[in-house]
Amino acid sequence: MSTLTAAQARRIAVAAQGFTEPPPTGAVTRAHLRRLVSRIQVLQLDSVSVAVRAHYAPVFSRLGPYDRGVLDRAAWSHTARSPRLLVEYWAHEAALMAVDDWPLLRWRMREYTDGRWGKEIVKKNGRLADDVVAAIAELGPSTAGQIEAHIGAEQRGRKGPWWDRSETKWVTEALWSSGVLTTATRVGFARHYDLTERVLPPEVVARQVDDDEAVRELTLRAAGALGIGTEADIRDYFRLSPKQSKPAIAKLVADGELEPVEVDGWAAPAYLPAGQIVPRRDRGTALLCPFDPLIFFRPRVERLWQFHYRIEIYTPAPKRQFGYYVWPFLLDGRLVGRVDLKADRAQGTLNVVGAFAEEGEQPSRIVPALALQLQAMASWLGLADVSVGERGDLAHALRRAIAR
After folding, report:
1. How far is CA 362 from its chain centroid?
2. Where does 17-166 have alpha helices with state H?
3. Which runs of consecutive H residues, i.e. helices, occur in 227-329?
4. Helix H or strand E encompassing 186
5. From CA 2, how far away is CA 289, in angstroms rounded?
6. Longest dimension (CA), the chain
7. Per-residue pLDDT reduced to its tens digit, 312-322
């Protein structure tokens, strides 16, 4: 078994996610988006919009400023000239994935026959599921509220601290998780459900994939998207179970599609896709949203960069170390800092609430590159200015750099 240095593993990881390639010289097109998704597999969805919604950010981080309408049309519209490219499903957490890959997750849809959460509610409302399907068949793409109004279901009051969901919403979500429904479009980020067979191509809906074959394919794709990873890293990418990922990796190794390696300082063996090239130098500069595929498995982030990262949205403000919605900053393949960002759309300003260098990193090296990235992000979001607050050891120098 060959051995790689930690630096080599880091370079492989960054290159595998597309950060070392130059962005397009012209406008980002549907073809660029297709190639990117085939590489990183998923664009995670999240409702937080304090800066920009999570699924838009990885495209910007890799391809530069682009028209977000390109992604919207690829995910939530369909025409004869421009068929739907992406579909929503539990492909990490809720995420956009390639339409053609939807059959690879049928095994998960069967596991979620009664939904992912609230299963007891769903099981007690079997007739309501039939009513929801009938309503959507009649109405076309609809929100849960529209479905509820159509069938005359009684709204449930608040039942717990996280979600205020009616029984109709629980059942509709379960039908989405089981593959009976999918997302036809989103309006203001509200999901409009429709029957899957009316949204996806018939050949995709009809295609059946053996469960073991599907898991092996997902495992191989995860390994490719990561470039290098332990079994736990690979397993997390599509949220597989150990009893799925371990035999899948063993089979891929036996077939010569994955190569086991050791990495200096890693306690567990790692795996490379066959023929994986090891870049010779550190490259890749970008702001990374908290749900970027490069960093969404935090143990791997710490192992690759010694970068301890936790999202602090649910941490009370006085107890936050870095801020509410913090973006790590990748500079020449290394995570060197982090910025707490908030888009003030009314004022036309990208607010840098806090800016922090990692221990041992030189602010004089970070600040010029970070300023350029922030100005590019502001322009992409249609914001005229970048404003830097007082928090963090980079704040003063960053404010001066942006004012120049």
Report:
1. 30
2. 30-40, 57-63, 68-76, 106-111, 119-123, 126-139, 144-151
3. 231-237, 242-254, 298-305
4. strand 181-187
5. 33
6. 65
7. 999 999 999 99
